[in-house]
């Protein structure tokens, strides 16, 4: 009676945690990791940016470069 089985004690402690607390802990953690690889994000703005740079040079394509950068940031990338 004086001995405490560690396996039983840890499972008993796990049972005392309420499901509500576990759920709230999961929902309060922000998901900041991008869901895609950067090469696969924003294909439309990437295509326009790349075509513009090839045809007109980087200096003339600031509008498309900025549009692609904003799209990537909206997807969660730090660029």
UniProtKB/TrEMBL annotation:
<dbReference type="Pfam" id="PF05051">
    <property type="entry name" value="COX17"/>
</dbReference>
<dbReference type="GO" id="GO:0005758">
    <property type="term" value="C:mitochondrial intermembrane space"/>
</dbReference>
<dbReference type="GO" id="GO:0005507">
    <property type="term" value="F:copper ion binding"/>
</dbReference>
<keyword id="KW-0143">Chaperone</keyword>
<keyword id="KW-0479">Metal-binding</keyword>
<dbReference type="InterPro" id="IPR007745">
    <property type="entry name" value="Cyt_c_oxidase_Cu-chaperone"/>
</dbReference>
<comment type="similarity">
    <text>Belongs to the COX17 family.</text>
</comment>
<dbReference type="GO" id="GO:0016531">
    <property type="term" value="F:copper chaperone activity"/>
</dbReference>
<keyword id="KW-0186">Copper</keyword>
<feature type="binding site">
    <location>
        <position position="40"/>
    </location>
    <ligand>
        <name>Cu cation</name>
    </ligand>
</feature>
<dbReference type="InterPro" id="IPR009069">
    <property type="entry name" value="Cys_alpha_HP_mot_SF"/>
</dbReference>
<protein>
    <recommendedName>
        <fullName>Cytochrome c oxidase copper chaperone</fullName>
    </recommendedName>
</protein>
<keyword id="KW-1015">Disulfide bond</keyword>
<keyword id="KW-0496">Mitochondrion</keyword>
<feature type="binding site">
    <location>
        <position position="39"/>
    </location>
    <ligand>
        <name>Cu cation</name>
    </ligand>
</feature>
């Amino acid at each position: 009676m004086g001995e405490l089985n560690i396996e039983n004690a840890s499972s008993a402690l796990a049972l005392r945690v309420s499901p509500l607390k576990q759920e709230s802990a999961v929902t309060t953690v922000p998901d900041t990791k991008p869901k895609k690889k950067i090469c696969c994000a924003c294909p439309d703005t990437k295509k326009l940016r790349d075509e513009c740079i090839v045809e007109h040079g980087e200096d003339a394509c600031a509008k498309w470069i900025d549009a692609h950068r904003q799209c990537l940031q909206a997807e969660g990338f730090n660029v």
